[in-house]
Amino acid sequence: MTYRAPVSDILFSLRLAAGTDAGGIYADIAEGVAEQTLNEAAKFAEGALLPLDRIGDRAGVRLADGAVTTAPGWREAYAGWREGGWNALAADPEFGGLGLPALLNAACTEIWNAANISFALCPLLSHGAIEALEAHASASLKETYFARLVSGEWTGTMNLTEPQAGSDLALLRARAERNDDGSYRISGQKIFITYGEHDLADNILHLVLARLPDAPAGVKGISLFLAPKYLPDENGAFTRRNAVRCVGVEHKLGIHASPTCTMAYEDAIGYLIGEEHNGLACMFTMMNNARLNVGLQGVALAERATQASFDYARERKQGRAIGASETSAIIAHPDMRRMLLTMASLTAAARLICFETAASLDRAHRCDDPVQAREADERAGLLTPVAKAFSTDIGNEVTSLAVQVHGGMGYIEETGVAQLMRDARICAIYEGTNGIQAIDLVGRKLPMSGGAAVKREIDDMRAIAQESHYAAVGDAVEAFAAASDYLAGVMKTSPNEALAGATPFLRLFALARGATLLEKAAGAARHAGDPNATRYETLAHFFAKNVAVAAPGLVKMVTEGAQSVTEGGELFAR
Amino acid sequence: MTYRAPVSDILFSLRLAAGTDAGGIYADIAEGVAEQTLNEAAKFAEGALLPLDRIGDRAGVRLADGAVTTAPGWREAYAGWREGGWNALAADPEFGGLGLPALLNAACTEIWNAANISFALCPLLSHGAIEALEAHASASLKETYFARLVSGEWTGTMNLTEPQAGSDLALLRARAERNDDGSYRISGQKIFITYGEHDLADNILHLVLARLPDAPAGVKGISLFLAPKYLPDENGAFTRRNAVRCVGVEHKLGIHASPTCTMAYEDAIGYLIGEEHNGLACMFTMMNNARLNVGLQGVALAERATQASFDYARERKQGRAIGASETSAIIAHPDMRRMLLTMASLTAAARLICFETAASLDRAHRCDDPVQAREADERAGLLTPVAKAFSTDIGNEVTSLAVQVHGGMGYIEETGVAQLMRDARICAIYEGTNGIQAIDLVGRKLPMSGGAAVKREIDDMRAIAQESHYAAVGDAVEAFAAASDYLAGVMKTSPNEALAGATPFLRLFALARGATLLEKAAGAARHAGDPNATRYETLAHFFAKNVAVAAPGLVKMVTEGAQSVTEGGELFAR
C-alpha cells in the first residue's frame, strides 16, 4: 500500500491557517521554508518510514532480560531520522533545534504518522519531554540532558499511568523520597509506557510522576521527575544503569512495533523537574501540543486510508454503473462515491481544524500584542479538545470505511488497510480519552473568559456561514451557538446534565467548524486560482449537505437528551 | 471475559415478534419449547463454545498438505454440538431436523455467535447448504447427502467468490463440463470460502457456482453444483477424494479460528442442483435467511460487547462523580452512561428488527392465508437488508465503543473486547456488503407491489409513533416516509441520485423501525408487568432522544445530498 504525502494539500491548508500572519510571525513559512521542509519530509517518510510500517506490524517488538528489540530496520531508520535533523524541527535553537513554528511541525507530524505511526510515536514522546524540560527544568538539568534529547541522540518517555490510575491521576501511588544530594529515589510501577524501553538510542529519559512522602492527597501532591535509564559515571559518561526496568510489553490491537512497556522503578534515581507537588502543572504545559499531535495521528491515518481507498476504487472493477455497457471501476458507483467523499471531506476538515489549533499555539507564543497572544492562547485551548477528539474519531471512522471500500480484501491483513484501522484505534483513547476531551471542552474551555473565547469562534464561523451557498452550514453554526448557550447555563445548575451532552456537543462543534473551514478553504482557493479549488469546492459541498446536516440532531441530543442519560434506573444498578 | 446469554431478554423480544401468532403458527413457542431450548442453548454456548473463543483467536488454523487443523478443543466442541442436536433445529423433520420456526432459530443463532462467532460460522454455512438442497436438489441427491448434512455429521460450504468476482457474480469464471453419467467436472479457483477445509467432520459438501460451456454470459449463465470432498466408492462408503483442494488460508483481521480458504477445483466431480443456468436463483432461495443470520452476528457481538462494558464500568473506579466524596465506579459518569446506553439501545433495536424479520419468514412459510403469506414474504424481503446492514453496522459501532469504555485496557488483546471489534468487522462485508444491502433496499425492495410493502411498514410505525411520548419517534417515521416517497420517484428518473442516498436511507429506516419497536416493547412489557419493562422504557427513551434524532439529518442526506455525491469532478478522475 502506497502513501504519497499530500504536500500541495498540506501546504495549502497550512497557508490558510497562517492567514494574514504569513508575512509576520510566519516569515519562515512565507520564505519557502515550508515547502522545502515538507518536500524533504515527504521524501524521508515515503522512502525510509513507510516501507517499515508493515514489517513492524508483523514483527512487533521482543522483550528479553529487560531489553526490548525493535523490528528489523527500525534502528537504521531512527539513525536516518536523527541524522536528517528531523527531531530538532520545533525545539529551541539555543539547544540545537530549528525553532520552526508549531504549524509547520504539525504538518510534518501528519506526514510521519501517516507513513508509520509506530515509528513516529518515539519522537512524539521525545517532543513531550523536550517541552516539559524546556519550560520547567533547572539550568543544570537542561545543560546535561537537553541537547541530546533535542538532537534525538536520546529519547524521552512520559510515565503517568498506573494500573489503578489512568484517566484519574489523583489515584497515582508511585513514591519518591528525597536523597541528601538533592536527587530523589523513585519506586513504583508504571504501565502503558510508550517506548519505555527500546534499542534505538543509547539512553532513555523517563519523565515520571510520583508522590513525595509529605505530599498532599490528590493531584496537588504529584511531582515530576527525570529518571534516565543511564546515569552519569565519574567521568561524565552515561554508563551507570538506573534502577528502572521494563518488566513487560503489551500485546496490543495495533501499533505493534511501538513498545508499550510496564516499567518497574525500585529506588531509581530521579531529578525534580519544576517544583515539588507541582508535577501536574508541568505536565499540563505540554498537554495542548501533545493532544494536538494525537489529533494529527488521526488525520494522518485517515489521509492514508483515503488515498488507499481511492486507489483501490479506481482499480477494482465490479458491476456496471447505470448506463455503462461494460464492467465499471467501483469508483463509478454512487454508494462508493459517498464513502470516498465521506473519507476525503472528514479528513480535510480534521486537518484544517488541527492546523488552526497549531496556528493558535504559534500566535500565543509569537504575537507581540499581549491581547492577541492571550486570545490566541484561549483559542488553542478551546480548539485542542476538538482537534484531538474529532480527528481521532474520524480516524476510526475513515480507516473503517477504508476496510469497507476494499470489501473482502480489506479484511485480509496483507492488504494493509486493516492495520490502519487497528493502529488508529488507540488515538481516541490515549492522551486523554475522547470522552475526557469532551468534558474538558464543556467544563473548562466553554467558561474561559466568561464565554468570550467561544463567542469569538462563533462570530468567526457566522461570518463564513453568511457567505455560504449552503443553508446547512449556517444551520450547523447556529445549532452550535444554541448548544453553547444552553450548556453554559446548565453547567452551573446541573453539571451532570451538561456533561451528558459533552460528546455530541464536541462533534457539533467539529461539524460547524469543519464546514466553515472547508468553505473558507474553497473560497480562498477559488480566489487565488489555486489548483486545489475544485477539490475543496467538492469537499465543502459534500460536507455541508451530507455531514454538517447532522447538526440539528446533535443539538437536540445536547439540549433534550440528557435526562435519559443521567437517569437509567436498573440498568446502572449492580 | 464472560458472556451470559440474555435468555429473558431474548425470550421477551421473541414473544413480541411472534405477537398474536403466538398460539397459532408459533404453538411450539407458546408451549414453552422456546424457553427450554434457549436455556439449553445458553448452557452449551457458555459452557462449550465461549471458553474456546479466545483460544481460537490466538491459535487460528493451520494448513499443511491441503489439510486444515482447527484450534485446540474445536473438534470436541463440534462433536458436542452435533450430539446435542443443535445442527438440526430448523431443518425439515423428514430428514431428521426439528422443524423449529426461523424465529427460534434466530434466537439460538444470536447465542452461538455471541459465544464464539468463529465456531458458529461452520453450522451457519451448513444451514445455507441445507436450505439450498432442501429447495432445489433432486430426490436422489437429497437421499445421499441431506440427512448427514442436517445432523452435522458433514458440513456444507458456499463457493461463490473468485478473485475478479465478488459483489459482481456476473464476472464468475469457474467452469463446469458435462460427464456422460449425468455428473459434471468443475474447474477453477474460489476464494474466501468459509470452512472450505477443516477437521471437524468427515466430509465437506461444497456448493459451487460455475458456468457450463454453452452458458449465456452474465448471471443467467451460472449453475449450482454439489461437489463433495469425498465421493462414494463402490461400497457406498465416502472414501474417494474429489479433485477439490484447499490451497491457502487467509490471514485475517478477525474470526481467526474460522478457516477462510482458497479452493482449487481441477475437474472435480459435481452434481447439478436445480436446473442448468439457474444457479443464482437457487442461491437467492437462501439469501434472506443467510443475510438475517449475518445480521444476528452483529447483534450477538454487540450484546457481548455491551455486557462486557457494563461489567467493566461497574468494577473500574476512576474520578469522582459530581457530588461524590470518594472515587466512583466509572458507570456513575454521564459520558460513560451515554456510551453504555448507546450500546444497549442499539443492540436491543437491532435484535427487535432481526426478530421481526425472522417472524416474517415464518409467517411467509406457515400462514394458511395466501395474502397474509405473500405480505409476510414481502415484509421479510423489505426488512432483510435492514436487519443485515443495520445490525452489522451497529455491531461495528458497539464493539468499538466497548474498546472505548475499557480505555487503555480495551486496546490490550488480553482483555478480549478488541477481538470482538476485529471479529465483528467482517459482518458488514460478507453476504453482500452493507452498501449492496442499501442498494437492494432502494432498487428492489421499495418498489415491491408498487410500494405497498413499504406503505404497510410505514402504517405500522405510524400507529406506534402516535402513542409515543417522544416527538422524535414520530419525526423519524415521517422522515422515513418522506424519504421513501422521494426515492420511489427519483429511482425512475435519476437512479444514480437515488442510489447515492441508499446508505443513509437504510439507516433512516432502521432508526424509525428501531425507535418504534423499542416503544412497542416498552409498552408491551409495561402492560404485561414484565420484569423487562423498566429496561425497555429506559432504552426507548434514550433511543428516541439520542439516536432517532438523527433522522431529520438523514432525510436531508437522501433528498438533498445526492448531487454532491454523483458529481465529484476531478476527485473521481484518474
UniProtKB/TrEMBL annotation, chains A, B:
Ranges where the Acetyl-CoA dehydrogenase-like C-terminal domain occurs: 462-566
Every Acyl-CoA dehydrogenase/oxidase N-terminal domain range: 72-153
Acyl-CoA dehydrogenase/oxidase C-terminal domain: residues covered: 278-440
The EC number(s) this enzyme carries: 1.3.99.41
Keyword Oxidoreductase among record annotations: yes
Residue ranges annotated for the Acyl-CoA oxidase/dehydrogenase middle domain, each copy included: 158-267
Catalytic activity: 3-(methylsulfanyl)propanoyl-CoA + oxidized [electron-transfer flavoprotein] + H(+) = 3-(methylsulfanyl)acryloyl-CoA + reduced [electron-transfer flavoprotein]
Enzyme class name: oxidoreductase
Cofactors, names only: FAD
Function: Involved in the assimilation of dimethylsulphoniopropionate (DMSP), an important compound in the fixation of carbon in marine phytoplankton, by mediating the conversion of 3-(methylthio)propanoyl-CoA (MMPA-CoA) to 3-(methylthio)acryloyl-CoA (MTA-CoA).
PANTHER family referenced in this protein's UniProt entry, alphabetically: ACYL-COA DEHYDROGENASE, BROAD-SPECIFICITY LINEAR ACYL-COA DEHYDROGENASE FADE5
Name the UniProt record assigns to this protein: 3-methylmercaptopropionyl-CoA dehydrogenase
Native source species: Methylocystis parvus
